[in-house]
Amino acid sequence: MQARLITENEREYYNSFIASIPKGHILQSYEWGEIKAKTGWKPLRLLIEENGKPIAAISVLKRIIPGLKKAIFYAPRGPVFDIENKEVFGFLLAEVEKLAKDHNAIFLKIDPDIPADNKEFKQLLLTKGFRSAEKGDRFEGVQPKYVFRLDITPDEETLLANMHTKTRYNIRLAERKGVTINTECPKSDLKDFYHILQETCERDNFLVRSYGYFEDMWDYLVERGYAKLFMAEHEGRYIAGTLAFIFGEKAWYIYGASSNSYRNVMPNYLIQWTMIQWAKEKGCTLYDFRGVPGNLTEDNPLYGLFKFKKGFNGVYSEFIGEFDLVYSPFYYWLWHTAEPVYQKGIRKLIALKKRLRA
């Protein structure tokens, strides 16, 4: 086995391998590293080959810790390899550790696309020195731990029949009320989407990234066929929108936005169904609705989100979660002491800005 960092001209070679592996993920794609590079991360894409063919890969995002000559490593939904091959995993981790020494990394964080009931893989992580880095059962993690996933290999008639009665009714209601979905949105529609997204985040008390971040996703993903914007229109105006990712045989519902007006015409149901149809047409076998809360009681403020996604008859899935491989115990302790203080300060600043706008 040989390990090497890949270059830009190997983009398609690298992506083809990531997309071909059952546990491959768009967050390990070459393009996702480019997007994150715009936000202060540096991507390091390591490829493991044997007899001239790729057998494992990991896209590590490196971030410098302010005030220290140290860094953190994070591999979103990585690494990508045959999870039954422990020898390859061990070799890959040894090569990442070499990178960590070269870049003064304190630890490596991973949150692979592995189900929580895979006890064998969890034990493998612990054997290799990883420690659990769980933060909560809502959306406290970097990536969602709980999602709904839908097998979309059945025909459309079967998919509709398997949905909750109310979900199927609301899809048809939106059509009867004259809602249409624009599946060929130009980049100029991104501004309308972002405006509705801001409205949504203000209503639901979520944070929203800058418009420039969505422009980057358009340039690196939409333009290259790895993402698509869908906009719901009613009476001559956009009232909802979604952004979906697609990679290999998987599609993900990433961002959703809905206006405070016209919610009674149920555009969110029709737009989801349209995305599922699109994913099927593109040859996908899996549609991922992304994050839902882990606490499923009805008094949970996010229960409505859970109920909406559940209505499409996806499988409620829990991932194995976040794990850290520590290279520098002292600085790891220091990071976990200072990071919550930093995050608390950010939350206070956001709350202050909201009060000033009120």
Structural overview:
There is one protein chain. With 358 residues, this protein is α+β, with helices and mostly antiparallel strands. The chain folds into two domains: 2-137 and 320-357, Gcn5-related N-acetyltransferase (GNAT) (Aminopeptidase, 3-Layer(aba) Sandwich); 153-284, Aminopeptidase, CATH 3.40.630. It has eleven helices and 15 strands. It has helices at residues 11-20, 30-37, 86-102, 119-127, 156-162, 165-176, 189-204, 211-222, 267-281, 303-310, 329-357, and strands at residues 2-5, 42-50, 53-64, 71-75, 80-81, 105-110, 130-132, 146-151, 180-182, 227-234, 237-247, 250-258, 286-291, 315-318, 323-326. Strand 10 and strand 11 form a beta hairpin. Mean pLDDT is 91; it is low at 352-358.
Quick rundown:
By secondary structure, this protein is α+β, with helices and mostly antiparallel strands. It contains 11 helices and 15 strands. It folds into 2 domains: 2-137 and 320-357, Gcn5-related N-acetyltransferase (GNAT) (Aminopeptidase, 3-Layer(aba) Sandwich), CATH 3.40.630; 153-284, 3-Layer(aba) Sandwich (Aminopeptidase).
Q: Which percent band covers the strand fraction?
A: 25-35%
What's the CATH class label of the largest domain?
A: Alpha Beta
What is the number of domains? Answer: 2
Q: Which topology of the largest domain does CATH recognise?
A: Aminopeptidase
Biggest sheet, in brief?
8 strands, mixed
Total beta strand runs: 15
Contiguous uncertain segments of 5+ residues = 352-358
Structural shape:
globular
CATH architecture of the largest domain: 3-Layer(aba) Sandwich
